[in-house]
Amino acid sequence: MTGSLALCQTHLSREESEILCGWTVIVPLSLDEEIWLPIDSADHESMVAGAPQVPSFAEKPAAAIDLPAETPATCDNLGLSMWFMHQAKELAPARPGPWTADLDTAFYAACSCAPPSTRSDALPPRLHLRPGAQHVAG
Description:
The protein is an alpha+beta fold. It has 6 helices and 4 strands; from the N terminus they run ααβββααααβ. The chain has helices at residues 2-11, 14-22, 54-64, 79-85, 87-91, 103-113; strands at residues 25-27, 35-38, 45-50, 128-129. A hairpin with a 6-residue loop joins β2 and β3. α1 runs antiparallel to α2 (14-22) and α3 (54-64) runs antiparallel to α6. Mean pLDDT is 75; it is low at 117-138.
């Protein structure tokens, strides 16, 4: 995540970077602004962000590292993860560029800006939790 944070801080405003890198839960609906929720078992609050706002911020860092055209355009289940684990590693030597410098950073950039699949069998709706965040039943 260090590479992703640095990439965002370089290519986004401070506010955009805080929203893109600071959310704990992202929900598949539009929010006028982020929502802060206290967590009873912790000394901090969780930020809930709306999915429609996040990709507009995420496109800038993704464009800066020039993701290849073969990068999946949607994020469904583990498809994007599997692509980076297998095809991206194979493609990197043939398509060198900024995206190959750090595949973890490229993955986070692609994952942040890829919309959820619109297939009806891609359930549950896209809901992300940051590592270490508590699961929120929905």
